[in-house]
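Sample 3 of the quickstart, ligand flavin-adenine dinucleotide:
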Amino acid sequence: MSLVAPQNSVMGLDSTIASLRICIIGAGMGGLTTALSLAAAGFQDIHVFESASDLGFVGAGIQMAPNMARVLDRLGVWDEIAKEAVVLNETSIRQGATDEELAHVDLRYIKEAFGFEHMVGHRSTLARGIQNGCLRYPGVKFSFGTLCEDVDVVSDRPSFTAIPRKDPSKEPQRVTCDILFGADGIKSVVRSAMLKHLEADAEIIDTNQAAYRIMLSREQMSRDPELLKLIDSDKVIRWIGERRHIIAYPVSSKQIYNLSTTQPDVNFASATNSQYTTKGSKKQMLSVYGDYCPMIQRMLDLVPEGDACHPTLPHLAQGAAQAIEDAAVLGVVMAKIPDASPQSISKALRIYEKVRKERAETLVGLAAASGREMHLGAGAAQEERDKAFAALRASGGKGHVPDRWADAEVQKMIYGFDCFAVADQLFDKEFGGM
Ligand SMILES: Cc1cc2nc3c(=O)[nH]c(=O)nc-3n(C[C@H](O)[C@H](O)[C@H](O)COP(=O)(O)OP(=O)(O)OC[C@H]3O[C@@H](n4cnc5c(N)ncnc54)[C@H](O)[C@@H]3O)c2cc1C
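Result:
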C-alpha cells in the first residue's frame, strides 16, 4: 500500500508553502526519511547535505520494527526494502557462557497485532531504499562530500557554510534557507548551535559502552553445522553476560549473519568522527568475550576485521526507527501549516516536539534500563531477573520479559504507535490555540 504522492504532484499545498527552501544536514536514516516525508507532503525545494561521499552504511544489520515499517510503507518505499529482509519469528535469550536458553519468545503474533512483521535487514538496503524514494521527487537534491559548519540559527533565516570536502576547486558556500533540519547525528552541529543560542547544555553523556558490529558471510559459516543452523534460522538471539551481551540475526536473504556486541568502553570514548565509529581490535574483542561458550568463540574468530561504534544505547533496536518516526511527524505537521510565515512554521515544529520528545526520551530510558538488567553480575538482582526468565519459560513465553525489547507490553507501546495519526490529531487539536 502506498499513500505517496505521484511524481510532480503537490498534495494540495499552497505554492508559497510548497516552495519554502528546506535544507537538511545529514543523510542518515533521519535525514533521508525527512527529505522523503517532506517531498511526499508536497514540498518542492529540499536540499540534503552529507559530509560522507556516499551513503556508506557498510557492515551492519538493522532491526526494522513494525513502527518503522509502517512509516516507510506510508511513504511508498517499504516493499523494495522488505524484499531482501528476513522475518524474525522468534527470539531466544541465552547465557553467553553456556549457551543455555533463559527465555524464548514467539514473535509471530507481531504481524497480526501491528500490521507488519518484525524484520531485519542490511543498513545499506534500508538507506538506499529510502534514497530511491527521494529520487522519485525532482524537488529533492543531494550534496554528498559536503561538510556543514558555522550554523547560524539566530538570524531571520537560518544559514550555514557548506564545504566541499574532496574537491579543492570548489569554494565553500554560505547557504541560507527558510527551514533547516539538523539530522546530523550524535555530534550534531545544528543542535550545538541551537543549544548555544538558548544558553543550554550541549554535552553528550558518555554511556561508557561500545559496540562491535560484525557481519559474517554464509560461506564463512557453512563449514560449521552449528553456525549454519544460526544463519538458517528466523531467530534473533541475545547472549547475555555480566556487563556485556551479543545480539545476532541473519540478514540479506540469510546470506549474512549480523552480530552486534555491547561491552564496557575503554577504547572508543574519544573516537573523533561524526558517528563515533572507528576500527576495533579483534584481539581485544576476543578477550572481552573470552569466557563465552565455544560456539560463540568460533564465530567471533571468523571476524576478519572490526568496526566499532559508540552512540546511543541500541538495546531496544529503535534508534533509526525513532529517527524515521521523527521524519514522518515532520511531514505531517509541515503539510498542515496554513501559511508560510515563520510563526506558523514555529508552531508546527512545537507540535512536532510535543509528539516526539516524551516518546523518544521514554525509549532512550527503557533501552538503558534493559541494558542494566541484561548486564547484571552475580547477586540478588540477577537472581530476581533469572526468576522472571524462569517464570517466562514456565508460561511458554507469555508474561514479563526482563529483556524489554521482547516484552509484549513494551512492544505494544513501541510498535502500536501510529505517529501519523497522533501528529495529525494533535495538530488539529492544538495549532489553532497556540
Ligand atoms: C550497534 C548498533 C545497533 C543498532 N541497531 C538498531 C536497530 O536494530 N534498529 C534501529 O532502529 N536502530 C538501531 N540503531 C540505532 C541507529 O543506528 C541510529 O540511531 C540511527 O542510525 C541514527 O540515525 P540518524 O539519521 O539520526 O543519525 P546518523 O545515522 O548518525 O546520521 C547522521 C548523518 O549526518 C552526517 N553528518 C554529521 N555531521 C555532519 C556535518 N557537520 N555536515 C554534514 N553531514 C554531517 C553524518 O555523516 C551522518 O551520515 C543501532 C545503533 C547501533 C550503534
